[in-house]
Specification:
The chain is of the alpha/beta class and 303 residues long. Helix content is 44%, strand content 19%. A 6-stranded mixed sheet has the order 8-7-6-9-11-10, sandwiched between helices. A 5-stranded mixed sheet has the order 3-2-1-4-5, with helices on both faces. The longest helix is centred in the N-terminal third of the chain and has 20 residues.
Length: 303
């Protein structure tokens, strides 16, 4: 009988999906998924005016977790070390503690959350490993609730920060047509030392937002000039028409303009006219941290 392959897995519960990703636990193995399963969510629509995740949002998360676990079990998937975690859509909800408890009671899965700084560190680790290059690397990541920035010249970033200016947040605040103001908000949230460090080295853009924008621009290296062309075009289009463009899915179309504005602001503030787009981000960073036994990154805070 062949020995069972050791694996590590991550269940990433975000605003738009619950995604189970499993890879080999061997650090020398490629980070190629042995199993991948995704259920769509729309948690961006599940928040009420006070920032609480409504019952239908909790129901959707519980159903998604049950679905991916059930399919993995039926597929005979061997999952070794396994981390279920939720991004800012749950972490920053006003009733986050209650949401995590209710999901745990219904599914037996206790969702973990990471601090914004931990998410920035995980994105940095993913981009560092994906790039496979030495030297200073600046990492930019646009999420739904937050944006992350990190930079360093080794495995550990010198700067790792998370700021509350993601695509969902900018849309909710009505800032999608105020590009200069978004850039200024991000600039003011960073220290002079952080800004100086972030201006150095090569830049890598992580997340679905950067990936979609690069596809929209038709290139792997996304440039500020690409965004300067596309932001006015996106602003003129309805969400339905945006969803017909390359790189913009139907469920992300409403926030696609805000994502482009956030990406443009990050590039401007950090002084990078171009970013190479990485397919790896926080989820892959967590898988790498599990494989490398990096307790400082795998350790989590309760929601």
């Amino acid at each position: 009988m062949r020995p069972q392959l050791d694996t590590v897995g991550v269940l990433d519960v975000g605003s738009f999906s619950a995604h189970l990703l499993v890879v080999a636990a061997d650090q020398n193995a490629p980070l190629t998924p042995l199993y991948s399963d995704k259920v769509r969510l729309r948690l961006d629509r599940g928040l009420d005016a006070s920032g609480r995740l409504r019952a239908e949002g909790v129901d959707a998360i519980a159903a998604a977790i049950a679905a991916v676990r059930g399919r993995a079990r039926r597929a005979g998937l061997p999952i070794g070390e396994f981390v279920p975690f939720a991004t800012s859509s749950v972490r920053d909800a006003a009733n986050a503690d209650e949401v995590v408890r209710r999901i745990a009671r219904r599914t037996g899965v206790v969702l973990r959350t990471f601090t914004g700084q931990q998410e920035a560190q995980l994105a940095y680790l993913a981009a560092r490993r994906w790039s496979g290059k030495e030297g200073t690397l600046t990492v930019l990541d646009v999420g739904g609730g937050t944006v992350e920035v990190a930079t360093g010249a080794a495995d550990e970033p010198l700067v790792a920060e998370s700021l509350p200016y993601g695509a969902r947040t900018l849309t909710a605040l009505g800032l999608v047509h105020r590009e200069a103001e978004v850039a200024e908000l991000i600039r003011r949230a960073l220290t002079e030392d952080d800004l100086a460090a972030l201006h150095r080295g090569r830049a890598v853009g992580c997340s679905k937002v950067f990936g979609g924008l690069a596809k929209l621009a038709g290139r792997r290296t996304l440039r500020v000039t690409d965004l300067d062309r596309w932001i006015p075009r996106l602003a003129r289009l309805s969400a339905r028409r945006r969803a017909k463009l390359p790189g913009i899915s139907r469920h992300r179309a409403e926030q696609s303009l805000a994502g482009a504005v956030a990406a443009r602001a990050l590039m401007e503030v950090t002084g990078h006219d171009a970013v190479v787009v990485s397919p790896w981000s926080t989820t892959q960073g967590l898988l790498l941290a599990l494989r490398e036994h990096r307790s400082e990154l795998v350790g989590t805070d309760a929601a």
